[in-house]
Amino acid sequence: SPLGELIDHLQKWEDGWLSKLISGCKPIILTGCQGSGKTWTSSTIAIIRTALGSPVQYLLDRHYQGDNQQVWSYLTPKYAATNETQIESAMVDCIDLWSTRIANRPKDKLQIIVDEFTHLPKLVGDTANKFIELALSDTRKAGCQVLLISHNLTNNSFGSGTKDYRTNGTVAIKKYSNDGEKPLDRITV
Fold first, then answer.
1. Which stretches does DSSP call E strand in 90-143?
2. For helices 84-104 and 126-135, what crossing angle results, to 10°?
């Protein structure tokens, strides 16, 4: 089957690191400038994870109905949050979901995607800070695959006190563009 072939290719490519990343629960942070393809890459990862049995539970993106509508059209999230109020509410729901799933020791996996995380700590305040702290520490035990998309990997985006979590507890993929329109065929992991 096409899915079987994809899995086989991912497992064979460069010792299978990308296959392990896609199937694992370590949070993935995609960073890069505008036009570097962060959202498209996230969507691709999410599509593969969905095909492997991990549905998208939450998709939080202020541009969900605008610029990113086409990108996300390939996914069917259970809940999409498209403005600050909805995003803050969804973050609270995710925190509760993680606690419940940790207590129940889940065998299944689900996905949570947050695009444009860069400004959310300023827009939704303490909720975003609590969300990121728990997303960087609790999601593996909760069986949640978290994708965070941001322009940079700084404390302004993720909150002070999270550097060690980000350094040791995530995989950061940096994408590039030389014109802000088209991605370059280069990444840093």
1. 110-114
2. 30
Name, in order, each residue with C-beta under 8 angstroms of 99's C-beta and a sequence gap of 6 or more: 138, 142
CA dihedral (49, 56, 144, 152) positive or negative: positive
Beta-bridged to residue 145, according to DSSP, are 111
The rounded distance, in Å, linking the Cα atoms of 91 and 110 is: 15
Q: What is the predicted pLDDT for the residue at 177?
A: 84
Cross-strand partners of 144: 110
pLDDT digit string, tens, across residues 66-98: 878 888 888 999 999 999 999 999 999 999 999
Pairing of strands 171-177, 183-188: antiparallel
How confident is the model over 137-182, as pLDDT tens digits?
A: 888 899 999 999 987 665 556 656 666 666 666 788 888 888 877 8
Q: What is the DSSP string of 4-60?
A: HHHHHHHHHGGGGHHHHHHHS-S-EEEEESTTS-HHHHHHHHHHHHHHTT--EEEEE
